[in-house]
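Exercise 7b. Backbone tokens:
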């Protein structure tokens, strides 16, 4: 990394250009392809199926579709995995009084709430087969009948469904209807896992850190070059959700100034976390920990001003920058 590039990271520098698309961060080729599909499908009144691993941000795709098709449109998100199977039809289509034990008043249901807006069905693979058949009928005719009701009602909504499951496999297993898959899957958007777009990780981590600091009323913070490299090289099995959680945890243990690689390792599986119980830290580790604590305290007292922090520590500003980057005098 060049000297100018290194100082930009260490000092924070001017904010990097924003690389977001309706809240989704990243300009890798994989994400640009996702954005292109979102824009294309937003203009079409057809269902959209969003596929991707857990934590990749599938709901953000649904929200982007909503914004592009009219930000004032009603948005009704539903987690199908959180609804008991015997309550699906009542929750989705509503029910009339007396439809079943305990139904003492009319319940409008999710479809009525989503009328004129966008319905987001997350974990759509969890829909019971009987409910799948009725949902397909709604998508084809625009009509549905509440549980216990005699008259059909109409609902006009844009459906966005999402899942991390292989629905084709579910069809082979007999737990998902092929006709519903055909109806949902004509327009597909696959959100890539974070490990396939590592170039997006630094920008995402910086944005998460900025939001966390602002929400807590803390001053600015930044990642050292070593920390940025560690973030980019991590496996991120939990995808964007895991990255956000790691950044939040690291920000908590390093509440001022530079976030070092050591702040991150504690929260990254396989990245050299805490030593085994009973193991003694090396002298070098003890010295690094003490130095880091002193620097963080000085930065806290100086409210993030590195010139003042250097004066409090009795070192030059250049020395402080070197220590923040993890280098020592004489290092290349």
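Sequence design result:
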């Amino acid at each position: 990394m060049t000297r100018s590039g290194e100082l930009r990271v260490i000092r924070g520098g001017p904010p990097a250009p924003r690389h977001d698309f309706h809240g989704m961060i990243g300009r890798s080729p994989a994400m640009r392809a996702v954005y292109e599909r979102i824009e294309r499908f937003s203009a079409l009144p057809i269902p959209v199926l969003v596929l991707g691993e857990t934590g990749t941000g599938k709901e953000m795709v649904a929200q982007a579709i909503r914004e592009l098709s009219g930000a004032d449109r009603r948005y009704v998100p539903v987690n199908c995995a959180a609804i008991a199977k015997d309550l699906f039809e009542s929750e989705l289509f509503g029910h009339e009084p007396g439809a079943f034990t305990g139904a003492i008043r009319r319940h409008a249901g999710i479809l009525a709430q989503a009328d004129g807006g966008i319905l987001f069905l997350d974990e759509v693979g969890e829909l019971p087969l009987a409910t799948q058949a009725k949902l397909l009928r709604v998508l084809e005719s625009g009509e549905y009948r509440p549980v216990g009701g005699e008259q059909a009602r109409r609902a006009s909504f844009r459906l966005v469904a999402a899942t991390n499951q292989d629905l084709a496999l579910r069809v082979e297993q007999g737990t998902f209807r092929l006709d519903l898959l055909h109806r949902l899957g004509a327009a597909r958007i696959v959100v890539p896992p974070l490990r396939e777009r590592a170039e997006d990780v630094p920008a995402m981590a910086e944005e998460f850190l900025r939001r966390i600091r602002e929400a807590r009323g803390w001053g600015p913070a930044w990642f050292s070059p070593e920390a940025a490299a560690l973030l980019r090289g991590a496996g991120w099995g939990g995808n964007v959700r895991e990255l956000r959680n790691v950044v939040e945890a690291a920000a908590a243990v390093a509440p001022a100034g530079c976030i070092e690689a050591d702040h991150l390792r504690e929260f990254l599986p396989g990245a050299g976390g805490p030593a085994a119980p009973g193991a003694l830290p090396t002298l070098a580790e003890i010295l690094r920990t003490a130095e880091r604590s002193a620097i963080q305290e000085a930065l806290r007292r100086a409210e993030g001003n590195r010139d003042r922090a250097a004066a409090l520590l009795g070192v030059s500003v250049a020395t402080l920058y070197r220590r923040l980057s993890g280098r020592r005098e004489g290092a290349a």
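Instructor comment: The two ends are 11 Å apart (CA to CA). The CA atoms of residues 202 and 228 lie 6 Å apart.
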